[in-house]
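Hey, does this match?
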Amino acid sequence: MDAWRLGLVQALGLSGLALAPLASEASKSAPTAQEAATAPLLVHFMEQQPVSGVGADGQPTGEMVQRMRRAAQQAGVPLRWQLTPLKRSVQDLRDNRDAFCVLGLFRTAEREAFARFSPELMAGEPQILVVRREAAARVRQHASARAILLDGQLRLLVYDGVSYGEQIDRWLLARQGPTLRAIAGSMRAFEMLSRNRADVAVSTQRAFEEWKREAPAGLDRLEWVQSAPLPAPPGRHLACSHKVPEIRLRALDRAIQQLDER
């Protein structure tokens, strides 16, 4: 290089040369709007049989998973699935660092502050109280599900970070008794009850029936309390971070609304 050209580069080009790698790194870490609108959409899902979970083939399965696949195909949105604990998924929505969605969340006022919710993807399943047989007599002394959940002499098992609907959530916040928080799926919760880790848990009738069909060792240790119905469950939604492009969200909304029309 000519001496005068080298001098010009040294005088004027150093900052540009130093910044060039940084610009390149930024372009790799931050996808363009076009990339964000066409790349597979990351969907967090949880082990919550029988509506969602991992099948024998290692792939996502369950009624809610299938409904999401149908809606995404109709909307022209490719999906990428990731099995993720619910508490972490909700925290990631709060952080809003990445474009992703969470399958099957209940819609609450708190969550609406940091997530964008689709129309109802699937109707909520009726929730029930499952108890250990040894605790059933005490449970039946109460006239309502609220009284059962507030009974400080009963050990309650709940899923960490899960919403059970705003009314039940308020009861749980007011609770003073021992509460065991589990991160595993519903089948694991039934096992924990049968092993005397807790006395009562909130579940769904379908999950409980599914567990009973597997004929586990502790089958005769648990029962469903039908005398204390819980509030009607809210529907389940797709909850997305604010990084997901609006054009994708609108397409998914339309497809979800049309799921039961065909």
